[in-house]
Amino acid sequence: MKPDLDAFWMPFTASRQFKKAPRLLTRSADMHYWDDKGRQILDGVAGLWCVNAGHARPKIVKAIQDQAAELDFAPPFQMAHPKAFELADKVAKIAPPGMNKVFFTNSGSESVETALKMAIAYHRARGEGTRTRLIGRERGYHGVNFGGISVGGMVGNRKMFGTLLAGVDHIRHTHDLERNAFSVGQPEHGAELADDLERLVALHDASTIAAVIVEPIAGSTGVLIPPKGYLQRLREICDKHGILLIFDEVICGFGRTGTPFAATTFGVTPDLMTLAKGITNGCVPMGAVLAKQAIHDVFMTGPEHLIEFPHGYTYSSHPLACAAGLATLETYADEGLLTRAGQLQGYFAEAVHSLKGLPNVIDIRNFGLVGAVELAPVAGEPTKRAFNVFLDCYDKGVMLRTTGDIVAISPPLIIEREQIDQIVDTLRGAIQRAA
Ligand SMILES: Cc1ncc(COP(=O)(O)O)c(C=O)c1O
Fold first, then answer.
1. What is the pTM of this model?
2. Is 9 a member of any domain?
3. Cα(336)–Cα(343) distance, rounded to whole angstroms?
4. pLDDT bracket for residue 2 (50, 70, 90)
5. With 80 as the cut, is the pLDDT of residue 1 above it?
6. What CATH code is carried by the domain that includes residue 307?
7. Which terminus of the chain faces fewer neighbouring Cβ atoms within 10 Å, N or C?
């Protein structure tokens, strides 16, 4: 029976369009969804960049079922349950060296808020309470809470919501079609864009700046790959001025770039790192912030009966999420999924770049198992061309995502070569029809 579609106010959805022609998913397994009409749909975006091990994986399903029967909830304040420690330990073991403290949240947005608060509180705890300014980057996406949209740089997500957080500034984005269009992997040009942080230091003074937050690969804004040397340069400038570097790895984390984390892939270790999505394979909401030992330790002073970091959520380290997280990490390890993107990236790159030359294709980007095709907008109707391509692909049995006039691809890491071909062939047809 078709549900009544009236009451549900949908997130980030063109809801009047949706309710006229609903896309209802009712079942999933491995690389596929099925809709309410029984149609099979290939998942080209890992759900929403989160189902890295593919859908309904037996180990994860069983872990969640067993956990619900054994311990449904345990308060995370002044109490805990063993799996929270086990999962934190397992995440820390695959993290970049030294990032060995794990704070659990329930989403990427909450991870971002947590990391921003940690950064400001860290400086205060070590006697530099003037460092309160937060620096984001144009076109950054850091979720939808007030801190996240303040440091974020996607205008559509900011303009409706007032003045946002005070004391925030942004460095320039790295998107440069003129110099870098159709780069395979990391673009050659743009390392110097990191120097924009020096401009903000000159303007505000380093003594007022707590942290800089960037996505190593900016995902939601349309897959912007960091230019060669850019992240290294950003790290150097942060070090020079005592500014914390936060990597938002909500999308990049858990294998998307060919190693567990983009920090490892690009050889740059941040001070704080935000995670979510792939930590539980998308099965149960969960996020996390990884912190360097030294950041954590600054808080560990004062009387022992006092709470050192007054922050947390009722569902931080929820037992179902921890069970799902442990089974997810086991599945990743059993199947070598955290490095599989590295093995497939050559094939994937060639496949997506084969779309070059199609009508309205103005750029193609790729890294690991993430890719994007940027289209020229329909005159006077931005976003429409890509949205039509998305609808067309869905109609032909492939689910992708769009942002602006960019079509993004980020399949589950279990994808096979024929399925990469299916995605690209379907996209090819849709782009031709959208001309
Ligand atoms: C880089 C980044 N940060 C934060 C978020 C927000 O995560 P959530 O939707 O789980 O709050 C996202 C979501 O896509 C993201 O891509």
1. 0.98
2. no
3. 10
4. confident
5. no
6. 3.40.640.10
7. N
- Contact 194/201 with Cβ under 8 angstroms? no
What CATH number does the domain containing 36 carry? Answer: 3.90.1150.10
Residue 83, exposed/middle/buried by CB under 10 A (0-12, 13-18, 19+)? buried
Where in the sequence is the domain holding 421, given as residue range(s)? Answer: 15-52+337-433
Q: Which of these, 287, 240, 248, 298, lies nearest to 270 by C-alpha position? A: 248
Ligand 1 atom having least distance to the Cα of 148: 4
Quote the Cα angle for 102-104-108, to 5°: 110
pLDDT for 57: 98
Assess whether 290 and 361 both reside in one domain.
Answer: no
Return the best residue to mutate from 49, 105, 109 for the ligand 1 pocket (most ligand atoms within 8 A of CB).
Answer: 109
Q: For strands 272-275 and 244-248, give the pairing.
A: parallel
What percent of the chain has a predicted confidence (pLDDT) above 70? Answer: 100
Q: Which two tokens stand for residue 34?
A: 């099925």
Q: How far is the CA of 234 from the centre of ligand 1 (A)?
A: 22
Tell me, yes or no, whether 291 and 393 share the same domain: no
Query: What is the CB neighbour count within 10 angstroms for residue 341?
Result: 24
434 and 249 in contact (C-beta within 8 Å)?
no
